[in-house]
Amino acid sequence: MDFRALEAAARASVAARDGRATERAPAASSPASAEAPAIDLAHLARQSDNDLALAEELLRLFDRQSAAMLRQLAEGAATRRRRADVAHSLRGSALAVGAWAAARAAQALEAALGRENGEESEIDQALATLAEAIGEARAAIARLGG
User: Fold this and answer.
1) DSSP label at 33?
2) 52 CA to centre of own chain
3) Which of 111, 104, 61 is nearest to 84 (CA)?
4) Which residues, at least 6 apart from 146, have a Cβ–Cβ distance to it below 8 Å?
């Protein structure tokens, strides 16, 4: 992986922790959404204690696991409770790497699945939003070389 952006985020994280002024840490954003990064690299640097190998592994795990979890959610054969559990796990994974939009979308899907009288259309829309956010996060990881 080409982690120049992550390395810069790690340097910014260390500088901020040490109280030194630095440029704003870069983020892996999608071209369509420059203001909201798909992956918050500064957060990822903090989560990995500025260990680039660990950050790389976290991104690879998220890339693989998010795709697999999204397939499980889309199949719809499982109970709502099971699908809500998968959405909850996906939210935690997204939070770990700083994929904020994916985390919010997973939380919305979990809530929709948890409502006893939840409409299928609401669940379908939440799943579509999650699939888009996961796609953007995975694209950002691919741009990093993952």
Assistant:
1) B
2) 17
3) 111
4) 1, 56, 59, 60, 63
**Residue 67's Cα: distance from chain center in Å?**
11
pLDDT digits (tens, 9 = 90+) for 6-51: 666 666 655 666 665 444 444 454 444 446 789 999 999 999 999 9
Structural domains of the chain, with CATH: 4-143 (1.20.120)
Tokens of 66: 């998010």
pLDDT one-digit tens code per residue, 63-77: 999 999 999 999 877
3-state secondary structure of 77: coil
One-letter amino acid at 137 equals A
- Tokens, residue 116: 């006893």
Residue with tokens 């840490």: 25
Residue pair 33/140 in contact (Cβ under 8 Å)? The answer is no
Task: Find out whether 10 and 52 touch, Cβ atoms under 8 Å.
Answer: yes
Which of helix, strand or coil describes residue 112? Answer: helix
Task: Tell the burial category of 20 from Cβ atoms under 10 Å away from its Cβ (0-12, 13-18, 19+).
Answer: exposed
Using alpha carbons, select from 1, 68, 74, 69 the residue that is nearest to residue 39. Answer: 1
